[in-house]
Design a protein that fits this description.
Strand order of the largest sheet: 2-5-1-6-7
CATH architecture of the largest domain: 3-Layer(aba) Sandwich
Number of strands: 7
CATH superfamily of the largest domain: P-loop containing nucleotide triphosphate hydrolases
CATH class of the largest domain: Alpha Beta
Order of helices and strands: EHEHHEEHHEEHHHEH
Distance between the termini: 24 Å
Number of helices: 9
Helix content: 40-55%
Structural class: alpha/beta
Number of domains: 2
Shape: globular
Strand content: 5-15%
Radius of gyration: 18 Å
């Protein structure tokens, strides 16, 4: 049986880094952001071109133009989500099905908006990545092009960290440093791994 682990966390909490730690430990990870990048040069491109003319060049979505078309426009943003979310979910379903066939014991679905999109039903257990608020703010505001206004807008669309933690089976605090986070990842894997019994 393959255990599907949902990995989520608010912006700047260290989710991507934690996902890489699972990969380093040998657990396959489906990265939603990477799936979006692939889809922007594939199945999503013609759908986005039809809904947002001028945002696709040579079969690939121009992310800067698309951002201009949707930022600060809730209806346009929802329309984009209605195109992209089902395609990402389909991509993840294929990923899980392939690993079930192989008999992979644990896989991770990195889902940034797991709680926001009702993704709890897609996974067996949930890992929430967290960090102190000041650490989160510092990380996010150090990103190129990020402003207080953009940060506030992103947070407004996300379920609060405290609420996410209440819905978690496992919590990994990346504010305690990389080594502590790596140990926490290992502890999750060990807890979910089937016990190995020595055959007499």
């Amino acid at each position: 049986m393959t255990i599907v682990l949902g990995l989520t966390g608010s912006i700047g909490m260290g989710k991507s880094t934690t996902g890489r730690m699972f990969m380093d430990a040998g657990v396959p990870v489906h990265d939603s952001d990477a799936a979006v990048h692939r889809l922007y040069s594939g199945a999503a491109a013609p759908l986005i071109a039809a809904r947002f003319p001028g945002t696709v060049t040579d079969g690939t979505v121009d992310r800067a133009r698309l951002a201009e078309a949707v930022l600060g426009k809730p209806e346009a943003f929802r329309a984009l989500e209605e195109i992209v979310h089902p395609l990402v979910r389909q991509d993840a379903d294929v990923f899980v099905a392939e690993h079930r066939k192989k008999g992979t014991p644990i896989v991770v679905l990195d889902i940034p908006l797991l709680f926001e999109t009702g993704g709890e039903d897609r996974v067996d257990r949930i890992v929430v990545v967290t960090a102190p608020v000041e650490e989160q703010r510092k990380r996010v505001l150090s990103r190129p092009g990020m402003t207080e206004e953009k940060f506030a807008g992103i947070l407004a669309r996300q379920v609060p960290d405290a609420e996410k933690r209440r819905g978690a089976d496992f919590i990994i605090d990346t504010g305690k440093g990389m080594e502590a986070a790596r140990k926490a990842v290992r502890a999750v894997i060990d807890e979910l791994s089937p016990a190995e019994t020595d055959t007499p």
